[in-house]
Amino acid sequence: MQMNRYLLIKSLGKSIWADVDHVMCQLLAAELTNRIPVVYWGMESLYSESVSSNAYEFFFEPVSGVTIQDILRPGYTLYPPSWNPENVYAEDTDRFKMEFRDLKSLMRSEANIVVSDIYYPISSILAWSNRGHWSFGKTPHQVYRCLFDKYLKLKPEVKREIQRYINITPDFRDEKPILGVHCHSNAIVHEVAQIYDLNEYYKPNIWHFIVRYNIRHIFLITDSNKILRQFKKLYDINGMLLYTDSKKRPLKQRIPTYLQEYPNKRHKGVELIKDTIEVIKDTYLAAQCDFFIGNGYSNLSNTVMRLKDWPETNIKLLY
User: Whole-model pTM?
Assistant: First the structure.
């Protein structure tokens, strides 16, 4: 790999697993274009505290041994041409105009640093694969599995939070099998028109798993206190229902920079970082369950699916 070719992967300003999805797709692009990847979640990220911090590294280990400071060298060219060493730490408020951001131009650029701040699905990037690359001939899910295993490494403090729950919850540690369930609040009804009906499908599917596989416990992930109360009423018999103490509230989306009165007017900061570590903890705990039912429109549910090799009979995403 040439040492003067880099792919700088910026945040989309979305939820943790939506931004991680973007990172995974761009890590594949970096491999296919012979570039060293650098992930930098700056002020465009929900989780950023300052220009000098990289919010990605609040949660995950770096994907390479190179930082954004290392690659911004005199004489290095950047693409798209709107970027320069002075403004690359900030958000390009014109990025959705898509100027110089079509996938072909990004993949074919000969600039020293290509900056990625637009999402392209992994299926589009796979079109650039070739027989010499490990991704050739694989399905998008198979490629995600490889990318997650290769690149997504939790920070030690996040690992400790996961292990702490396991240590203090003997039912999760010792009482198998466990069915993980991720049930969204109705707050995303504007995104998924049939969410109300979709949530009704959980009941028969949960019952199917309980009866067929003799489920001992249900581990629930939800952003809704209402759904938590419903699950307690339906399933909290003899301690069957398990859940963490993470706050049950939908994520408040960031305010786009061009609508802000001043740079940091967002729902962000220390509390959001703490809450997001709880989301990561829940996600990884769900991946340790024996079975899983989730929402196919949810980045969290899809992340659970991508974190390990599930037997087809053991996981179901609802659409």
Answer: 0.91
- What share of residues in the chain are helix, strand, coil (percent, to 5)? 40, 15, 45
Give the span between the Cα atoms of 146 and 105, in whole angstroms: 26
Using alpha carbons, select from 307, 297, 190 the residue that is nearest to residue 253. Answer: 190
Write down all domains in the chain, each with its CATH number in brackets. 6-151 (3.40.50.11340), 156-318 (3.40.50.11350)
Q: Edge-to-edge strands of the sheet including 113-116? A: 36-40, 6-10, 113-116, 78-79
Residue found by looking up tokens 């060219």 in the block: 77
End-to-end, the C-alpha distance of the chain in Å comes to 41
Among 206, 217, 211, 201, smallest CA distance to 288 is for 217
Nearest Cα to Cα of residue 271 among 252, 297, 243: 252
Task: Give the integer Cα–Cα distance in Å for 197 and 5.
Answer: 48
CB 25 within 8 A of CB 119: yes
Q: What does the alpha-carbon distance between residue 191 and residue 61 come to, in Å, rounded to a whole number? A: 31
In this predicted structure, the answer to whether residue 67 has a pLDDT above a threshold of 70 is yes
Q: 101 pLDDT band (50/70/90 cuts)?
A: very high
Question: Using one digit for the tens of pLDDT, what is the confidence trace for 139-155?
Answer: 999 999 999 999 999 99
Q: Given this model, what pLDDT does residue 251 score? A: 65
Can you tell me which residue has the tokens 């009804």? 189
